[in-house]
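Sharing in case it's useful to others searching the archive later.

Someone asked me privately for the predicted structure of Phosphoglycolate phosphatase, so I'm posting the question and my answer publicly. Question first, with the sequence:
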Amino acid sequence: MTQFNDIKFIAFDLDGTLLDSVPDLADAAEKTMQALGRPSVTAEQVTTWIGNGADILIGRCLSQSLDIDPELDPALHRDARQLFDRFYEEGGHQKSALYPGVKETLAAFHAAGVPMAIVTNKPAQFVPHLLEEHGIAGFFVDVIGGDTFPKKKPDPFALHWLMEKHQLAARDMLMVGDSRNDILAAKAATCYVVGLTYGYNYGQPISASDPDIVLDHFSQLAEVVTLGS
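And my answer, the predicted structure tokens:
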């Protein structure tokens, strides 16, 4: 199995990587569609539509397709996004849960002194509460949401920002994610990248995006990462 040697920093995606968040996202999306009198959406559909941020998720729900209807009314889209944010916050993320091995593995990296960050396309307003709620907020030195910077994954902007802030070379950083957006961002930043098979990737195998290594379980990270000094 591939080994990543002398890693000095690890960046993690959130939804589909650390957290199974589809049940809460699907609930909020369905309540939004009901409020607007639009066709229902299922958890199975939402699973294949998330990963590009809330605006695109809601556009896909309104379009009932991975491809957003180019004639979608911008005012409707805007209203739907506001409703979605309200319903998602009101739901309290009660149905979301960490994947097996996540907390233990993060705790081990943290104890070993490796700095870690969240780089997610989820709106930044929701991220700190989720991390606190699941007891992992203290593991991360930076938390970057989908609207923290002008560009989000698959753009490498956030990864470049982290490299500059922490004075890292690309070979010092590892990105861990479940979506092609994570793989593309890491490749554009020329850092190492792990693809996880259990998350959300538009119904496609993560191996198709050609990460450096594919893992089936989060805890396997501890077997492939050698930390730098």
